[in-house]
User: Which sequence fits this backbone?
C-alpha cells in the first residue's frame, strides 16, 4: 500500500490543495461582545420597540399585512385565526403560529388596547387573566382602525422590502392615517431599554396634533389643555397631573392610577365598597385573591367578605365591610397593599429612522405629522402620475377623433400594427402609448356622446392634475389634508374619555392604615410593653381568678395597664422627669400570653432611666399636665409644651435628689386633685392652687408625708363618679368624693383607707362610675375584668372588700377603668400608673390626724 503523500504548506504543491479560507484568531470576549451587540440591536429594531410612524412592532404589522392579503376588512366574513397566523408565519414572520397568535389576541382585547385593531369572535381571554381559546376555535377580521392604518398602502406611500425568503415584499411601515402610537400606546422590553407608552383618547389626540400643527411652539401646559392625560381602556383614576406633565415634557414620568369606586349601604346599615374600574394591565382575579389573603393574614382590617359580581354590563368588585367600620380606613389599607392603586411608569421610547429615542409628547405628534406629510406627498405624486398618464391617453384619443377619416386611411394602408403605430406617431406627433390606445379604440367611441364624454374626462383630469401639483408645491395644503382627516376621525370614531384625572394622592401615613380602636396596653416592671384588643378580655364576676394577661420572665411582673385608642399618643414619663412619645399603634401587638417587647427597643431611654408613668393623649391642644412626685411635689404645665417630640425625650419636671415621678394626668386647669399615699392617706385640693410652670422647672408642695410614707397615686376628681382604692392584697373599695373635703395643698390630708396586713398597702386610686368595668392585673400576670357596680361603696375609714383572689406570693400591681358606650361597647379608659410594688406593709395608720396649715415653701425653680 502506498504511503500518504506528505502535506506541505506550499500553495504550488500539486499534492496538497491550497486553503480555501483565512483562519484568524479572535479573543473570545471580543466575539461575545460583537455577537451580543448584534443580537441586542436586532431585538431593539426588529422585535421589541414600535416604529414612531405607525406605532407597530414588526410582528403586529405582519399580522395586519396577512389579514389585508386575505381581504379581511371590517365587513368581510370572519376567518379562523389559525389561517391568519399560518399565513403570517409562512409569508412574513417565520417564528411559528404559537408566537404569532398572542400578538393577534392582544390587538383584539378591549381591556388591553384602547382602540382594537382586530375584531374578535370567540374567546379571546379576559381581564381575570383567562387564556384565549386555541386558534383553531377563534376567528377574526380587521377593524375600521386597522383599515385606516393600511389605507393607501397600494399607492406607493411607503417603502417595501423583500420578506424573509424573498418570495414577496412587505411594507416597512404603514401609511397610518390612524395615529396608532398615541392612541393605543405600546409596551416592550428590549436589551438595555424598555418602552411604556400609555394609550390616549382619540378625540384628544386629534386635537393635540392639530394644536401642534397650528402652534409649533405650544408649551406642555398648553398641550395638556387639549390632552390632560392618558386614557386607559380599563378607565380608573389618574391621581394628580405632576407625573403626567413630567412625562409629556421629558418622555419619562410616573403616575399613580387608582381603581374607581363608590360606597353602597344596605338597609341594615352595612357598607360595601364597590370597584367599577381597575388600573390598566391589572388582573381582576388576582386583586380579589390578594384582598382575601390580606384579610386572612390580618393585614387589612374591617373587611367581612370580598366577591366578584362582574357581568356583561361591567366590572363589579364588592368589598363587604364589617358593621361600624370606617370605609376610609379600609380604602387606605387596600390602596397601600393591593394593585387597586398602581404606579404606571411612562417611558416613551420609539424607533426614529431605525434608532431608539426617548420622545416627549410634542415630538410624538411632530413625527406623526411628518410621516403623514410624507405619505400624502407620495400618494399625491402617485395619483399625479396616474392622472397625467390617463390625460395623455385621452389627448391622443381626442386627436384621433378629430382626424378620424385620416386615421382610418393610415390604418388601412399599413401592413401591420407596428407600421400603423409608426405612421400615426409620425403624422400626428403622438407617443407610442397614444398610438397604441388609438389602435385599440372601439368604434363606439366615434359617437358624438362618447366624444363629449372623453372631453369631460380630460377636463376633470386636468383639474385633478392642477390640484395635485398645487399640493406638492404648498406645504400648507398638505397640512390641511391632515387636518381634515383628523377632524373626520374625531367626528366619526371619537368617544368619551374613560379615565378620570383626579387630584393628587397624599402620601398615606401609617396612621391612615390603622383602625381607630381601643387597646389595652400593659407595661411590665422590667420594661416590656405590648398592646391587645379589649375583646381579648372577657368580663368576669367579682372575686374571680381572671385570665393570663402576660407571661413574664422570672422576677418580672406587669406593673401598669391602661386603655387607649390606637391613634392616641402615649407619653412615657421616666423616674428622672423625662418624657418620651409613641403612638399606640407603634406599640407591637402580641397575643394575650406574650410578654411583649422591651421598651428600650422602642424608646431612646438611658440605661439608668425607668418608665414610671404613661398616659394616653389624643391631642395637645388646650389643657394642662399635672405631675406628682413620690415625695409629694406637684407641678402643672400647659399640655401644648409637650407637643414637639424629640429623639431622646424632653424634660418634663426637675426633681430634687432622691425624688421620683409617680403620677401624671391631663387636666382642664380648674380640676380638683387627690394625692393618695401608700399608708392610706389622701389630700384633695384645687389645681388652681398650683400656678402653671414651664417644663424645665421644679414642682411645689402637694402633700406632706409621715416618715416612711410616700405618694402612690394622683387622680383628678370626677363628681359624678366614686373613688376606687385598691390595695396590694386584692382588696378595694369605692368611696364618694364628697367624703373628701377640700384642703390647701401641702397638708397631711385625711384617711382614705385603713391599711393592714389583711389588705396591704395602697396600690392605686381611680375615679369610676356604676356603668364602668375595671381591669386588675397582678404581679404574676393574672388579669380580671369586672363590673364596678359589683364593688361595694364604703366610707373612708374601712379596709374594703376582695376584688381578686391572689395566689400565694402574688400581689395586685395595676388598675384601669374601661368605660362603656350606650350599646355596651368599650368607649375609652383612664389610666392608672402605679409604680413598683412595696415591701411588707406597716400597720394601719392612726386615726385621722388634725389638719395642719401648710408651712411656707420655696417657689418652684
Assistant:
Amino acid at each position: 500500500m502506498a504511503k500518504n503523500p506528505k502535506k506541505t504548506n506550499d500553495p504550488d504543491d500539486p499534492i496538497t490543495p491550497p486553503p480555501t479560507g483565512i483562519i484568524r484568531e479572535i479573543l473570545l470576549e471580543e466575539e461575545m461582545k460583537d455577537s451580543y451587540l448584534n443580537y441586542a440591536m436586532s431585538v431593539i429594531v426588529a422585535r421589541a420597540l414600535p416604529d414612531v410612524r405607525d406605532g407597530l412592532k414588526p410582528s403586529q404589522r405582519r399580522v395586519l399585512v396577512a389579514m389585508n392579503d386575505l381581504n379581511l376588512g371590517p365587513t368581510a366574513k370572519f376567518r379562523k385565526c389559525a389561517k391568519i397566523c399560518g399565513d403570517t408565519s409562512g409569508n412574513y414572520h417565520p417564528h411559528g403560529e404559537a408566537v404569532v397568535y398572542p400578538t393577534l389576541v392582544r390587538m383584539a382585547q378591549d381591556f388591553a388596547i384602547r382602540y382594537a385593531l382586530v375584531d374578535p369572535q370567540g374567546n379571546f381571554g379576559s381581564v381575570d387573566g383567562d387564556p384565549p381559546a386555541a386558534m383553531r376555535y377563534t376567528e377574526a377580521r380587521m377593524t375600521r382602525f386597522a383599515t385606516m392604518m393600511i389605507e393607501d398602502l397600494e399607492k406607493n406611500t411607503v417603502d417595501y422590502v423583500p420578506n424573509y425568503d424573498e418570495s414577496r415584499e412587505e411594507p416597512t411601515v404603514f401609511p397610518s392615517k390612524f395615529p396608532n402610537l398615541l392612541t393605543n400606546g405600546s409596551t416592550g422590553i428590549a436589551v438595555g431599554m424598555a418602552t411604556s407608552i400609555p394609550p390616549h383618547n382619540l378625540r384628544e389626540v386629534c386635537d393635540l396634533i392639530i394644536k401642534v400643527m397650528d402652534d409649533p411652539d405650544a408649551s406642555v401646559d398648553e398641550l395638556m389643555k387639549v390632552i390632560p392625560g392618558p386614557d386607559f381602556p380599563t378607565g380608573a383614576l389618574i391621581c394628580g397631573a405632576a407625573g403626567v406633565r413630567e412625562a409629556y415634557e421629558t418622555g419619562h414620568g410616573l403616575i399613580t392610577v387608582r381603581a374607581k369606586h363608590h360606597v353602597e349601604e344596605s338597609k341594615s346599615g352595612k357598607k360595601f365598597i364597590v370597584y367599577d374600574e381597575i388600573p390598566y394591565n391589572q388582573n381582576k382575579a388576582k386583586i380579589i385573591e390578594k384582598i382575601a389573603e390580606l384579610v386572612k393574614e390580618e393585614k387589612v382590617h374591617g373587611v367581612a367578605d370580598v366577591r366578584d359580581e362582574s357581568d356583561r354590563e361591567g366590572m363589579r368588585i364588592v368589598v363587604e365591610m364589617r358593621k361600624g367600620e370606617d370605609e376610609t380606613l379600609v380604602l387606605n389599607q387596600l390602596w397601600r397593599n393591593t394593585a387597586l392603586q398602581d404606579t404606571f411608569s411612562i417611558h416613551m421610547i420609539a424607533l426614529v429612522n431605525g434608532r431608539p429615542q426617548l420622545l416627549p409628547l410634542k415630538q410624538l405628534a411632530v413625527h406623526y405629522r411628518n410621516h403623514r406629510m410624507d405619505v400624502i406627498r407620495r400618494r399625491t405624486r402617485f395619483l399625479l402620475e396616474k392622472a397625467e398618464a390617463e390625460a395623455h391617453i385621452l389627448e391622443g384619443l381626442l386627436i384621433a377623433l378629430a382626424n378620424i377619416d385620416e386615421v382610418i386611411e393610415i390604418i388601412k394602408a399599413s401592413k401591420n400594427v407596428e407600421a400603423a403605430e409608426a405612421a400615426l406617431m409620425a403624422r400626428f406627433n403622438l407617443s407610442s402609448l397614444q398610438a397604441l390606445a388609438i389602435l385599440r379604440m372601439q368604434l363606439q367611441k366615434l359617437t358624438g356622446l362618447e366624444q363629449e364624454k372623453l372631453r369631460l374626462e380630460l377636463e376633470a383630469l386636468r383639474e385633478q392634475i392642477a390640484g395635485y401639483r398645487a399640493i406638492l408645491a404648498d406645504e400648507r395644503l398638505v397640512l390641511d389634508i391632515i387636518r381634515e382627516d383628523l377632524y373626520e376621525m374625531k367626528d366619526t370614531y371619537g368617544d368619551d374619555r374613560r379615565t378620570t384625572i383626579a387630584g393628587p394622592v397624599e402620601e398615606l401615613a401609617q396612621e391612615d392604615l390603622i383602625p381607630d380602636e381601643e387597646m389595652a396596653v400593659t407595661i411590665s416592671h422590667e420594661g416590656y410593653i405590648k398592646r391587645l384588643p379589649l375583646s381579648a378580655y372577657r368580663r368576669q364576676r367579682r372575686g374571680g381568678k381572671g385570665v393570663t394577661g402576660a407571661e413574664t420572665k422570672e422576677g418580672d411582673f406587669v406593673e401598669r395597664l391602661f386603655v387607649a385608642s390606637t391613634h392616641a399618643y402615649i407619653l412615657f414619663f421616666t423616674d428622672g422627669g423625662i418624657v418620651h412619645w409613641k403612638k399606640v399603634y407603634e406599640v407591637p401587638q402580641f397575643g394575650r400570653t406574650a410578654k411583649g417587647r422591651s421598651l428600650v427597643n422602642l424608646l431612646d431611654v438611658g440605661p439608668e432611666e425607668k418608665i414610671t408613668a404613661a398616659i394616653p393623649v389624643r391631642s395637645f391642644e388646650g389643657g394642662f399636665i399635672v405631675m406628682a412626685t413620690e415625695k409629694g411635689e406637684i407641678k402643672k404645665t400647659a399640655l401644648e409644651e409637650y407637643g414637639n417630640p424629640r429623639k431622646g425625650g424632653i424634660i418634663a419636671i426637675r426633681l430634687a435628689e432622691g425624688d421620683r415621678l409617680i403620677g401624671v394626668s391631663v387636666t382642664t386647669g380648674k380640676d380638683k386633685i387627690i394625692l393618695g399615699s401608700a399608708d392610706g392617706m389622701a389630700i384633695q385640693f384645687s389645681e388652681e392652687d398650683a400656678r402653671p410652670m414651664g417644663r424645665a422647672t421644679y414642682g411645689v408642695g402637694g402633700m406632706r408625708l409621715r416618715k416612711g410614707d410616700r405618694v402612690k397615686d394622683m387622680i383628678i376628681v370626677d363628681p359624678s363618679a366614686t373613688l376606687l382604692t385598691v390595695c396590694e392584697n386584692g382588696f378595694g373599695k369605692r368611696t364618694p368624693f364628697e367624703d373628701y373635703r377640700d384642703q390647701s395643698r401641702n397638708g397631711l390630708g385625711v384617711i382614705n383607707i385603713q391599711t393592714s396586713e389583711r389588705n396591704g398597702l395602697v396600690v392605686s386610686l381611680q375615679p369610676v362610675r356604676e356603668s364602668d368595668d375595671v381591669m386588675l392585673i397582678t404581679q404574676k400576670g393574672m388579669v380580671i375584668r369586672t363590673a364596678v357596680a359589683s364593688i361595694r361603696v364604703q366610707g373612708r375609714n374601712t379596709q374594703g372588700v376582695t376584688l381578686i383572689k391572689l395566689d400565694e406570693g402574688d400581689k395586685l400591681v395595676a388598675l384601669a377603668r374601661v368605660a362603656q358606650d350606650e350599646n355596651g361597647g368599650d368607649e375609652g379608659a383612664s389610666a392608672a400608673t402605679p409604680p413598683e410594688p412595696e415591701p411588707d406593709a406597716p400597720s394601719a395608720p392612726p386615726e385621722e390626724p388634725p389638719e395642719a396649715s401648710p408651712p411656707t415653701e420655696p417657689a418652684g425653680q
About this structure: The chain has 17 helices and 42 strands. The chain has a mean pLDDT of 85. The first strand starts at residue 79 and ends at 80.
